[in-house]
Amino acid sequence: MHALVVFFDAEAENAVRALRRRIGARFELPPHLTYAAAGTIGPKVRAELREDLSRLWLPDVWLHTLSATGNTLQLGAVVDAELLAVHSAVHDVLAGRVKHPNAHYLPGSWVPHCTLLDGEDAEVKTAFAELHPITPIRAKTREMAIVDTQTGSIDPLRNASTAPR
C-alpha cells in the first residue's frame, strides 16, 4: 500500500516521539499525518502531485485531541479550511488515477491524526490514561512524501521550505 503523508518539523516530531516513548510505543516511520492511501500511487500520478503541490501552501496543524479508536491511540488534528482545501486538492489529483483507494482517507471520511500507539485494548486504555490531558502540539509541515507501507521506502514529493507562502 502507498500512503501520501506529511512529516513534521523537528520540534513537533520530537514532541510526538516523546509521547510515544512515555507509553512504550515503537514506530519505524517518523510521526506523520496521512492525507491519502491506496494500493498503488504510480509514477505518473506522483509527477502530477509534485506539479500540483508546488503551487499549494501546506498548512501547519495543531495536534490537539487525544482519542482512541479500535486498537489505536491517536492525536487528532484540528480541522480547518486550509487543511481541508489541501486534502481536497490532493484527492482531485488522485481521483480515478490510483488503484484501490482507502476509503478512510477520502474527503468526507478523513479524520486527520497522528498515530501514537497500535496495540491491544488494554494497552490503548493504559496509554490514554498516561497521556491525558494532552498538551497541544503545533506541527509544521517539513515534507510531503509517498510512503510504501510494506517496505518503508519514502519518495519525497515536496519539501515545505520550497513551498509558496
Characterize the structure shown.
The protein has helices spanning 10-22, 43-53, 81-94, 121-131, and strands at residues 2-8, 32-40, 61-69, 72-77, 99-101, 113-118, 137-139, 141-148, 154-159. It has 165 residues and is an alpha+beta fold. Helix 2 (43-53) packs antiparallel against helix 3. It is globular. The N and C termini lie far apart (31 Å). The model has no long low-confidence stretch (mean pLDDT 93).
**Secondary-structure element sequence?**
EHEHEEHEEHEEE
Helix vs. strand class: alpha+beta
Shape: globular
Number of strands: 9
Defining traits:
35% strand; four-stranded antiparallel beta sheet; Cyclic Phosphodiesterase, Chain: A; 9 strands; globular; five-stranded antiparallel beta sheet; alpha+beta; 165 residues
Short synopsis of the structure:
This protein has about 160 residues and is of the alpha+beta class. It has helices spanning about 10-20, 45-55, 80-95, 120-130, and strands at about 1-10, 30-40, 60-70, 70-75, 100, 115-120, 135-140, 140-150, 155-160.
Give the secondary structure arrangement, pairings included:
Blueprint: E1 2-8, H1 10-22, E2 32-40, H2 43-53, E3 61-69, E4 72-77, H3 81-94, E5 99-101, E6 113-118, H4 121-131, E7 137-139, E8 141-148, E9 154-159
Antiparallel strand pairs: 1-2, 1-8, 2-5, 3-4, 3-7, 4-6, 8-9
